[in-house]
Structure formats: structure tokens, C-alpha cells
Amino acid sequence: MPPTTRVLFLSPGNSARSIIAESVLGRLGVGRFVAASAGIQPRGYVQPRVLAILAALGYPTADLHSKSWRVFATSGAPVFHHLISLCDEESWPHEHCQAARSREVETPWRKPDVSLCRQALRGDCSAWPGRPTTDVWRIADPMAPHPPGALMDMILAETVRDLRERIETLIDNSP
After folding, report:
1. What angle do CA 46, 59, 87 make, to 5 degrees?
2. Does residue 172 form part of some domain?
3. Is the dihedral of CA 53, 58, 61, 62 positive or negative?
4. Is residue 171 assigned to a domain?
5. Alpha-carbon distance 25 to 31, whole Å?
6. Phi and psi for 112 in degrees, rounded to 5?
7. DSSP string for residues in 130-154
8. Which of 88, 95, 104, 145 is 20 to 30 A from 173 via CA?
9. Is the pLDDT reported for residue 128 higher than 70?
């Protein structure tokens, strides 16, 4: 049996895309992969419709929760083999980047781990523990348009399909 491969999915809010990816890899990669997700600025909750769609499609939802990437950038945190950023321009508003830059100027003494997440979003994870391979998957934020009911469910189901296809490729191309 091949060794377990750890994958961290990062997104801006950790309430939809990265949660979906964590759940999908958790099911498809059982026994070979351990999936986790985190947010740059986590919303603190998982979108209820995301949980409903995942459950309806047979994916696990019990342990899904929104969390900061910082929990994985501490000593003693699990070392990841792959770090995958899920983002698009629309889901990473400029004000977030400007706020991050202003905090850097105001706190030049910041801990090195503050820059880790920004490096991850750019695909540079050489400073992360274990030096994981990185990728950026451009996946539109399914929650951005805020459509009503059935249309939202269709958008979320399409996001699950898109992520499942990419995750199947990841699994197929891993030792």
C-alpha cells in the first residue's frame, strides 16, 4: 500500500470551494490521501447549501468546518505533500490584498508564517514545512453570484463536478 499523501486546499474564505475539495478527496482518496482545507480569511462557517449538496451527492460532511490556514503553519501541524490554492480574480478582492499589504507595513516584525499563505496563493510554497508541491486551480466562487434556490444548487453541483475531475486527475497521477 502506498504511503498516505496529505493535501491542503486553500481558498479565501474556506466556506465553499476548499470545503468541497476536502470532502471530495476525503471520499475518492480514502486510504491513500488525507485532505484538509483552510481559508486565508475564513468566514467561520461552511455555507449550508454546500453541506446540503455534498450530502445529497454522497460526500462526507460530518467533520467539515471553516478554519484558518494558520492552524497548518504551526509547529506540530501535519506536513502536506500538496498545497492547492482554489481561487479566481473575482473571489480575491483587491481590498483583501491591500489590507494584507497595509498590515505588513504596520507590523514589519510579523511572524514568517504570515507570508506563507500569500506565497501559497502565488504558488511558491518553498517556505512551508515539508516544501509541498503547489498548484493553483482557477475555480470560480460558486457563492459569488448569490443566485436563488435551484440555480445555486446547480452552480454548486457544477463546482463539485469540476473539483472531482481535477481531484481524480491528482489521484491518478500520484504514486
Report:
1. 50
2. no
3. positive
4. no
5. 11
6. -55, -30
7. T--EEEEEE---TTSS---HHHHHH
8. 88
9. no
